Amino acid sequence: MSRNRQRKGRVSGKRRRAREMAVQMLYQQELGASELEAVFSTFDISDYLSEIESDRPPEDRGAVQARAEESFQHAKVLVQGTVQDGEQIDDLIRAHAENWRLERMPAIDRNILRLAVYEMLHEQQVPKVVIVDEAIELAKKFGAESSGRFVNGLLDGVLKSPRFREPIPGKAKRSTALEKAAAVSEPTEGSPG
């Protein structure tokens, strides 16, 4: 495996672990009506350490601890942002939740959706389709049997909304070229035609 591929896998693994931690913290914060600092101070990363350590030699334990801490720090940023932008995020979810009231959604699904919408709004370096895929995986891992489909359907609607529509690479250039060609062929004021 190339060094770049290893690094990319670590980043992806770090982000995935951070998302898993963030969903658990959001769930704890909502159901326990806890302050974020209390949630952060009581969150136990030992499960993540054992998961990472299981396939590493003992001499890598320091690096493993550092990666788990990086994931935890990123998770805290995700949680703080999700909570801070909660009203805007909930409004976006409500706008796309046909026949579902936000309050009636399972708490884990609701918090996975909130985290994904926060990332769609603020994590510019991560493609939105990747964020949706990660949310679906979180729903399959932590939610009910139908959670993956529910999260997928709702986030697909959010993704297709004008606010999140991303230009298709190369398409903008073609339309610009077409518009320029049309502008050249259109008669201008005072020209014959």
From the N-terminal CA to the C-terminal CA, the straight-line distance is 63 Å
Cα gyration radius (Å): 22 Å
Category by helix and strand content = mainly alpha
Q: How many distinct beta strands? A: 0
Architecture overview:
The protein is an all-alpha fold. The protein has 2 domains: 1-83, no CATH class; 85-185, N-utilizing Substance Protein B Homolog, Chain A. It has helices at 3-32, 36-42, 46-53, 61-84, 86-96, 107-122, 128-142, 147-160, 171-185. Helix 1 crosses helix 4 and helix 5 (86-96) packs across helix 8 (147-160). It starts with a helix and ends in an 8-residue tail after the last helix. Mean pLDDT is 78; it is low at 1-11 and 168-193.
Summarize the structure.
The protein is mainly alpha-helical and 193 residues long. The chain is built from 9 helices and no strands.
Keywords:
193 residues; mainly alpha; N-utilizing Substance Protein B Homolog, Chain A; 0% strand; disordered C terminus
Question: Any chance you could write out the topology, listing elements then pairs?
Answer:
Blueprint: H1 3-32, H2 36-42, H3 46-53, H4 61-84, H5 86-96, H6 107-122, H7 128-142, H8 147-160, H9 171-185
